[in-house]
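Researcher: We plan to redesign the surface later, but first we want a full-length starting point. Tokens attached.
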């Protein structure tokens, strides 16, 4: 079943929905009250920081992307880099 709300990270001029596995991990960590979580995404460890609502690569913190939790129907560029048509 499709959840009502999902996690997104910022792209250029829009938002990308996280892939399903990462979304499940983010839900679990957030509901568990964690302030942040380290996740392996496309071969790199990313920190997802719920306090500041940001994600960034653990070993290279210059690129900081905003994240949000929003309706699954919110406007998006696609899912995890796969563009919607
Ligand atoms: N899930 C998948 N790929 C990611 C994620 C993530 N949570 N975070 C970063 N990347 P950085 P536009 C994004 C990818 O932050 O045109 C989009 O998914 C990231 O991919 O410096 O700018 C698109 O594929 C980027 O390729 O660690 O909106 C692509 O950018 C790479 O990791 C272009 O999107 C480095 O990101």
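Model: Full-length starting sequence:
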């Amino acid at each position: 079943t499709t959840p009502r709300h999902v996690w997104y990270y910022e792209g250029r001029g829009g938002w990308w929905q996280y892939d399903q596995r990462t979304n499940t991990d983010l839900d679990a960590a957030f509901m568990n009250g964690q302030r942040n979580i380290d996740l392996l995404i496309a071969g790199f460890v990313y920190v997802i920081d719920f306090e500041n609502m940001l994600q960034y690569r653990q070993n290279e913190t210059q690129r900081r992307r905003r994240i949000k939790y929003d309706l699954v129907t919110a406007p998006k560029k696609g899912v995890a880099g796969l563009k919607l048509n």
